[in-house]
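Anyone up for a design puzzle?
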């Protein structure tokens, strides 16, 4: 079912061309580790490549640096370093791409017609309980740290993904609060996607800078544990922060079948790229639009953004199969009655404002 008219889609495409459009969470970094994959060519299976970023009018993408849980000391830093290296190599090899470390870099890339790439660290376990390691990631250009992934760290509780986790710490430990303060001090954004509700509350009580959720949707629309309740969305907005809506079918669609271990294992074994649908269930684009619509009406267009989770999830809504289709979302929001003036900050300016605010408060 089409959620918009051709005229609305034309307006959306034009808006994407003149606005700064940013996706704050893509897992495409894992694909960069495959030396046979060429991001400059259109890929029929993945969600992100340079031709489709152009097609979608996307100006900047945050590439997540992620690794699963590990036991050997130094393994997290080694895996993260390899991914930072892969991002740098991709940027160096692509003339239409620019490395970005600040909001000013993103704006400059836009003015020169280049796609800005910003690394980010997904999972506090990757700092290996060391502020020195956190500093190393910041020096490599990491724009934010997601405090947990799908499991608890030694200093912060996770919300879990496929199952609800029993609290281990009751939110942040003393060291976890120190991590948040250090992120503020070095101008790196604090990301509360994946963390438990109590961890979010603890972060908001500690952080002196705006907070983001890089890829989280609305629990009022779909009651998945990974989604944020209204009170926390409002609290994040009260810091001046932004909630970037996640596109994953299993998070946003209450009627979607559970994400089984078999599907997840096949998807991970394929490097996050499956060549066949994981389910016959189809999530209409309207379901994703419901999450954006809810957040926009709850906290206003200054506190909502895009955090697709492209290349990091096995199923997406109809009409949103890859980044080239992002204007469909904007067109559907126009059809819901949102204006271009409201949607422009949501597309990217909001996260640039937070980056500027975090940089300004660094060292204060």
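Challenge accepted. My sequence:
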């Amino acid at each position: 079912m089409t959620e918009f008219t051709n005229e609305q889609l034309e307006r959306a495409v034009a808006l994407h061309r003149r606005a700064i459009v940013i996706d704050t969470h893509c897992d495409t970094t894992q694909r960069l580790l495959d030396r046979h994959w060429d991001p400059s060519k259109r890929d029929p299976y993945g969600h992100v490549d340079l031709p489709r970023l152009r097609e979608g009018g996307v100006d900047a993408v945050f590439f997540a640096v992620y690794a699963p849980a590990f036991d050997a000391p130094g393994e997290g830093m080694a895996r993260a370093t390899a991914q930072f290296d892969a991002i740098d190599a991709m940027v160096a090899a692509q003339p239409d791409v620019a490395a970005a470390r600040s909001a000013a870099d993103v704006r400059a890339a836009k003015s020169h017609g280049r796609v800005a790439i910003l690394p980010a660290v997904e999972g506090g376990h990757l700092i290996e309980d060391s502020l020195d390691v956190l500093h190393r990631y910041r020096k490599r250009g990491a724009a934010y740290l997601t405090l947990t992934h799908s499991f608890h760290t030694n200093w912060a509780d996770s919300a879990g993904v496929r199952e609800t986790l029993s609290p281990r710490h009751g939110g942040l430990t003393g060291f976890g609060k120190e991590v948040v303060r250090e992120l503020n001090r070095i101008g790196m954004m604090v990301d509360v996607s994946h963390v438990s509700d109590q961890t979010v509350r603890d972060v908001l009580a500690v952080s002196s800078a705006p907070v983001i959720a890089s890829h989280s949707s609305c629990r009022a629309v779909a009651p998945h544990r990974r989604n944020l309740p209204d009170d926390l969305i409002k609290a994040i907005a009260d810091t001046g922060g932004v909630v970037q809506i996640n596109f994953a079918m299993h998070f946003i669609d209450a009627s979607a079948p559970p994400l089984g271990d078999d599907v997840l294992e096949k998807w991970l074994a394929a490097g996050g790229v499956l060549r066949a649908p994981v389910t016959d269930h189809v999530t209409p684009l309207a379901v994703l639009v419901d999450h954006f619509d809810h957040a926009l009406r709850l906290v206003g267009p200054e506190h909502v953004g895009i955090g697709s989770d492209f290349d990091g999830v096995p199923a997406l809504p109809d009409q949103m199969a890859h980044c080239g289709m992002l204007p469909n979302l904007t067109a559907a929001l126009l059809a819901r009655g949102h204006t271009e003036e409201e949607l422009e900050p949501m597309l990217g300016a909001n996260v640039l404002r937070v980056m500027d605010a975090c940089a300004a408060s660094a060292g204060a």
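A detail worth pointing out: The radius of gyration is 19 Å.
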